[in-house]
Amino acid sequence: MISHPTRFVIIGNGAAGTYAAEQLRKDDTACEIVMIDDEKYTLYNRVSLPRYLKGVLLEQRVYVRDMDWHTKNRIDLRLETKVTRVSFEEKTVTTDPGGELRYDRLLIATGGRPNPLRVTGAEGARYLFNFQYFDETKAMVARIPESKVAVVMGGSFIGYELTEAFAFRKLETHWIQRGPWFLRRALDEPGGRVVSLLAQDAGVHLHYDETIERIEQADGRLRVHGSKGFRATADLVGVGLGLTMNIDVFKGTALETKVGIVTNEFLETSVPDVWAAGDVAEFYDLVSQRHHRMGTWDNALNHGRHVAKNMLGAKQPYVEVPTYASGMFNSNISVMGVTTEEEPDAESLFEVDEEGRNYKRLFFLGDRLVGAILIGKMRGRKKVLELISSRTPIAERAKVFELLAMPEVTARPAPSHEG
Ligand SMILES: Cc1cc2nc3c(=O)[nH]c(=O)nc-3n(C[C@H](O)[C@H](O)[C@H](O)COP(=O)(O)OP(=O)(O)OC[C@H]3O[C@@H](n4cnc5c(N)ncnc54)[C@H](O)[C@@H]3O)c2cc1C
Known about the structure:
about 425 residues; alpha/beta; FAD/NAD(P)-binding domain; Enolase-like, domain 1; five-stranded parallel beta sheet; 9 helices; 26 strands; about 20% helix; binds flavin-adenine dinucleotide
């Protein structure tokens, strides 16, 4: 029996951590909430960073919560503080600076950190950036006015966001991707061609099946050497090579981890009184009936709100079709449910229009629609979500395209990341 107010400790003040704290306070006015983060900022919207980089959003608009909000809600936020050790037996976390802190219930919402470019000359190179944190985005924003040429490495969403922002800023932008097309595990060749067309429309120079092999300093700029003959002297190099989950502190403990922290459908970990949420949670998803991780703002936000209720005693499964919506140069892309990225055995059908700029790919497991990617026109998105979440058996797969072409009440989705 706990006689004092329950003390909730949250590691990570991203979307998952902060929305969990908000929900805890709403549902339990008496509890103690301590939230710890090693960055120096209150919650800011990582999804807004690309628009800030493009120069279309002011720095102040990137913040979501300020310190006053935490004070008002009696959330003891400890910034620039790292959790260095957790003892599940003693129910304590050790922080630096700080020391030992007892918890009754613990939420791990530690997200991931970007993988650096590991090639000769990259370590410590000036003007070479990842794209995950506010500080590195600010440094890129400061560099852009004195830049003419940018190189981006990475064939996934972060690579895209960097490329789009640099091209928008009228830099000569080279986009290097290891694969033969963008999102090579989720898109097929026709889908990749659509993205290439949209990128070329935006003035981007594309370099597929290529990788950066070496970087040299050259009079305050960076000389980039590619594996297949690419050469450029860049003012700015951006890198999007995926994330490594922040789980190091739990190595050697009883907590079950794989790529992230393994949870069940209630976001409970393998250790009593410990939950995980957001990017770091490798949760059992009832919709796709498998464990997976999601790297989206909506997922982090919804996880945060949901897990708070479960930490307060509810035992409700988390049921949401994962979605990701983003711009795609002057068009849009939406990814829903499970694709061949997560489920290589999924079977798929695609459709592309005559212009070559509108594309739909549907993913099936047996007679169920489990996922879809739409590029260009977003008509049919709502229907796709309905079919995935209802797990409706589908007798004739190609007929789904006809369903998607039918008029909808809302034709275009609001961006999923505006939480
Ligand atoms: C540039 C960019 C663009 C994006 N665009 C989109 C988009 O268009 N749509 C979309 O849906 N999603 C997008 N995302 C992804 C989305 O922002 C993330 O999925 C979401 O923010 C993850 O939130 P989180 O709370 O799980 O983790 P995070 O925001 O990563 O927060 C985790 C926090 O925990 C801290 N931490 C880790 N370990 C420790 C420790 N030991 N001690 C103390 N603190 C620690 C970290 O420093 C971090 O501050 C984008 C991300 C980026 C970077």
